[in-house]
Specification:
Structural class: alpha+beta
CATH superfamily of the largest domain: F0F1 ATP synthase delta/epsilon subunit, N-terminal
CATH topology of the largest domain: ATP Synthase, domain 1
Shape: elongated
Strand content: 35-45%
Order of helices and strands: EEEEEEEEEEHH
Length: 140
């Protein structure tokens, strides 16, 4: 039997996942982090991307917009601004958000907030990447 740890993924609205995992992958601002049971304690900011949880039944993928990742030897907590199961992401909305952010960044008028547009583009791209990974795994 493999060693496990407890994992919680919580958004501002609700708890998305609570259970045991054999390994967790998360998008830290300093790069992706692979977490096994008995990992050294760590507290870091997350960037938009996917959190993957490997359990004895398989792998589940979640999208997070940003937030905080807390790692303890037997517990991982993801406190996300927004978190969704990857299968629940609205692809049409993500494509539209990507297009709007790209248009805002190419618009050379002075009234645009480039930092906000870059953040929106990063979130949309991370959502689309999560959708693509699910498609690759399921063959759809």
């Amino acid at each position: 039997m493999a060693m496990t740890m407890h994992v919680d993924i919580v958004s501002a609205e609700q708890q998305i996942f609570s259970g045991t995992a054999e390994m967790v992958f998360a998008p830290s601002v300093n790069g992706d982090v692979g977490i096994l049971p008995r990992h050294a304690p760590l507290l870091t900011q997350m960037r938009p991307g996917e959190v993957r949880i490997q359990t004895s039944e398989g792998e589940e993928t979640f999208y997070v917009s940003s937030g905080i990742l807390e790692i303890q030897p037997h517990c991982v907590t993801v406190l996300a601004d927004t978190a969704l199961r990857a299968k629940d992401i609205d692809e049409a909305a993500a494509l539209e958000a990507k297009q709007l952010a790209e248009e805002a960044m190419t618009d050379r008028k002075g009234g645009i907030d480039y930092t906000k547009a870059q953040s929106q583009l990063a979130e949309a791209m991370a959502q689309l990447k999560a959708i693509q990974k699910i498609r690759d795994k399921t063959g759809h």
